[in-house]
UniProtKB/TrEMBL annotation:
A zinc finger (CR-type) spans 145-228. Its cofactor is Zn(2+). This is Chaperone protein DnaJ. Participates actively in the response to hyperosmotic and heat shock by preventing the aggregation of stress-denatured proteins and by disaggregating proteins, also in an autonomous, DnaK-independent fashion. Unfolded proteins bind initially to DnaJ; upon interaction with the DnaJ-bound protein, DnaK hydrolyzes its bound ATP, resulting in the formation of a stable complex. GrpE releases ADP from DnaK; ATP binding to DnaK triggers the release of the substrate protein, thus completing the reaction cycle. GO terms for biological process: DNA replication; protein refolding; response to heat. The gene is dnaJ. It holds the Pfam family DnaJ_CXXCXGXG. GO terms for cellular component: cytoplasm. Zn(2+) 1 binds at residues 158, 161, 216, 219. It comes from candidate division WWE3 bacterium CG22_combo_CG10-13_8_21_14_all_39_12. Residues 145-228 form the CR-type domain. It comes from the Bacteria. The keyword Chaperone applies. Zn(2+) 2 binds at residues 176, 179, 202, 205.
Length: 379
């Protein structure tokens, strides 16, 4: 199986610059507009995917950790909720390090700033831009999931011209005289004595074939205007910082009623006062007294789901870990809960009451009757 590194022809230790450079070189070579070999399209897709994974620090780390087949397997697994498939308008798509089978042409466009090389045909209406927005959520919301409203600004359809760009709802348009409505113009060129006919986008109407005679003043005839929108985000239980949700078609509307881009909500989880998180496990360190460590005790411990009794057996050493099963975070895909791992830290009292002091002194006297720790240690 060819690794993503092999596909790009870089070493496993390649820097991000090297990866980008390798991608650029290969993507240009195999872009279906340039390379007419039937297998070029497949190769182009492979290159794009390899670049998508290796250019993302988190994805690359997971890939290195899991190996090629393990990573691809995890990608195929998808999510229990949502999955990685694309949805229609307004659909939701969860993504994490395994998610996001990004369109290879989108990747190409983001690197080269253009979708392809061919310019001969009528200009496709360009899709609106996708928007990324960070949503801060509490530790609790990340663990249990929530519905939470967020406001963001985007380009929406112009309310005055309904996206047409002209007043009177699109009636103020006429056929472009330069290209007679075809959106393209042809010119003859001669290279090394050979004649070529070159077809390019009409510069007058930018390929639309129509010209606006009565431009909308509200949107400078782009057909869109800035607005603030709000959306209720369905925060999945188990989400972590960096995971993003895609809302298809909720990004910027394209110019003149062309389709909207997507909205990506990226989660940023605030830390908790006492709990921390490692994957789906919850970590908690609690202080216990010397007597509790020596004699044992049963303690009521807070968990993210409520409280649990923890039995500290007699003779517990400092930094011992205890596992509370199924008291961790639900897995975002399977909803299976992790554990809560409780570490005990024995607190040595710095200030003693008279009574405590006399008890410790008594203990010291008793301990001096038997061989000291040091003697045993060196014997
Ligand atoms: Zn308008
Ligand atoms: Zn024209």
């Amino acid at each position: 199986m060819e690794s993503y590194y092999d596909i790009l022809g870089v070493s496993k230790s390649a820097s991000i610059e090297e990866i980008k450079k390798a991608y650029k070189k290969r993507a240009k070579e195999y872009h279906p507009d340039i390379n007419k070999d039937p297998s070029a399209q497949d190769t182009f897709k492979k290159i794009s995917k390899a670049y998508q994974i290796l250019s993302d620090e988190e994805k690359r780390a997971a890939y290195d950790r899991m190996g090629h087949s393990g990573f691809e397997q995890a990608q195929k697994g998808g999510y229990g909720r949502g999955g990685n498939q694309s949805y229609g308008q307004g659909g939701i798509n969860y993504e994490d390090i395994f998610g996001g089978g990004q369109d290879p042409f989108d990747i190409f466009e983001s690197i080269f700033g253009s979708r392809g090389y061919s310019g001969g045909t009528q200009r496709q209406p360009s899709r609106g831009e996708s928007i990324e927005t960070v949503m801060s959520i509490s530790f609790d919301e990340a663990v249990h999931g929530a519905g939470k409203k967020i406001s963001y600004s985007r380009f929406a359809q112009c309310s005055n011209c309904k996206g047409s760009g002209s007043n009177n709802g699109g009636k103020g348009q006429e056929q472009c005289k330069t290209c007679s409505g075809s959106g393209q113009v042809t010119s003859n060129r001669s290279i090394f004595g050979a004649q070529y006919t070159q077809t390019t986008i009409c510069p007058d109407c930018r390929g639309k074939g129509q010209k606006i005679t009565n431009p909308c003043v509200n949107c400078s005839s782009t057909g869109r205007q800035k607005t603030t929108e709000s959306i209720t985000v369905d925060i999945p239980a188990g989400v972590e910082t960096g995971i993003r949700i895609k809302y298809s078609g909720k990004g910027n509307v394209g110019e003149n009623n062309s389709p909207a881009g997507d909205l990506y909500i990226i989660f940023k989880v605030s830390p908790h006062k006492v709990f921390s998180r490692s994957g789906n496990n919850i970590l908690l360190t609690i202080p216990i007294t010397i007597s509790q460590a020596v004699l044992g005790d049963t303690l009521e411990i807070p968990t993210i789901h409520g409280t649990e009794n923890l039995v500290i057996p007699a003779g517990t050493a400092s930094n011992k870990e205890f596992t509370l099963k199924d008291q961790g975070v639900p897995d975002i895909r399977t909803q299976r809960k992790g554990q809560q791992i409780v570490t005990v830290s024995i607190e040595i009292p710095k200030k003693l009451t008279k009574e405590q002091k006399s008890l410790f002194e008594k203990l010291k006297v008793i301990e001096s009757d038997s061989p000291s720790l040091l003697e045993k240690f060196f014997s």
